[in-house]
Design a protein that fits this description.
The chain is of the alpha/beta class. It folds into two domains: 2-225, Rossmann fold, CATH 3.40.50.300; 230-289. It is built from nine helices and 14 strands. The strands form three sheets. It has a six-stranded mixed beta sheet, sandwiched between helices. β7 (158-162), α5 (170-185) and β8 (189-194) form a beta-alpha-beta unit. α3 runs antiparallel to α4. The chain is elongated and about 75 Å long. It starts with a strand and ends with a helix. The structure holds adenosine-5'-triphosphate and magnesium ion (MG).
């Protein structure tokens, strides 16, 4: 069974003066249990709309979504989910500790377990010191971390996170990536949205790119990275006085006794063959790749 199933999901909003906005145009997506899936798209692409539909917070115009085999329109679908909304806002007169206790009680957690888990997640998200202060005194990053803490407390199988790294500093972002990697190790499913490619590169198994309400690509991160190799930067040891070419290629740059050659994928074998035959020492071969950011931008520009 897939952790999340989305089939032909469409959402049309009525805008001003009854103008229609097609926020989602027939989305199909399956996310397996134990998978970390990054949902990447520019502002207004339809990420939050998709997430709200999966969570049953919006009614689809057509199509359907389910979580762990239960239709999103049913309350039971939300039992196995930790959900972080975009721009989370909480009852700010409560402290983080009180709020976490409230969330745990909604999931009917047994008191001793809730106390233990609450301590774990507050410490993990570096909120332990501030746990008794009302949340109105928290910084934006702290509120975001409370948002993540409340997804973890009941230890669900599925995590649906709308921009979990938003509003966090580099240390906070690294912490969230670590938490996602931990969840992955424990076989949990994480579906999270972002518009920052760096966030998905290190933690995701697969990435889906959504542009203007349509999914334009879904692939494993390593396939995207592999298909993005454009050439190699080869560093050779050559005396400063020696200006040599191999396979017709001149050096791009010379620094002391090192010459750097840019070699496209197609000429790599011929180039290395001539270098080896001449006995010149190879110091370094760097792969020059189109990164995820370029891949993402090219898809957004094509759409
Ligand atoms: N309640 C609404 N009424 C009318 N239009 C809406 C509503 N909610 C979303 N939209 C429109 O649907 C489209 C998708 O919005 P959505 O919030 O899903 O984008 P997003 O990918 O989450 O963007 P962001 O990265 O800025 O959070 C946008 O054009 C938005 O203006
Ligand atoms: Mg959004």
């Amino acid at each position: 069974m897939n952790a999340i199933e989305i089939a032909g999901l469409c959402k049309q909003f009525k805008g001003k003066r009854m103008a229609k906005v097609d926020a989602l145009k027939g989305l199909d997506l399956q996310i397996e249990a134990g998978e970390v899936f990054g949902f990447l798209g520019p502002n207004g692409a339809g990420k939050s709309t998709t997430i709200k539909l999966v969570m049953g917070l919006l009614q689809p115009t057509s199509g359907s979504a389910s979580i762990m085999g239960i239709q999103s329109t049913e309350t039971g679908a939300r039992r196995s989910v930790g959900y972080l909304p975009e721009n989370p806002a909480f009852y700010d007169y409560l402290s983080a500790e009180e709020y976490i206790a409230f969330v745990g009680s909604q999931f009917r957690m047994e008191a001793a377990l809730l106390k233990r888990r609450s301590e774990d997640v507050l410490k993990r998200l570096e909120l332990w010191e501030a746990r008794k202060r009302p949340m109105r005194s928290y910084s934006k990053g702290m509120v975001q971390r409370v948002g993540l803490a409340q997804t973890l407390v009941h230890d669900p199988a599925v995590y649906i996170l709308d921009e979990p790294m938003s509003g966090l500093d580099p240390i906070g972002r690294a912490l969230v990536k670590d938490i996602i990697l931990d969840l992955k190790k424990r076989g949990k499913c994480v579906f999270f949205s972002t518009h920052i490619t760096d966030d998905v590169e290190k933690v995701c198994d697969r990435v889906g790119v959504i542009v203007k309400g349509s999914l334009v690509a879904v692939d494993r991160v390593e396939n995207i990275m592999r298909s993005g190799v454009e050439g190699y930067l080869v560093h050779l040891r050559l005396p400063e006085t020696e200006n040599r070419s191999f396979a017709g290629l001149e050096p791009l740059r010379r620094v002391g006794s090192t010459s750097e050659f840019y070699v496209s994928c197609g000429s790599f074998n011929a180039f290395m063959g001539q270098v080896n035959a001449s006995g010149v020492e190879v110091l370094l071969v760097e792969t020059k790749r189109r990164d995820l950011e370029d891949f993402f931008l090219s898809l957004v520009n094509q759409a």
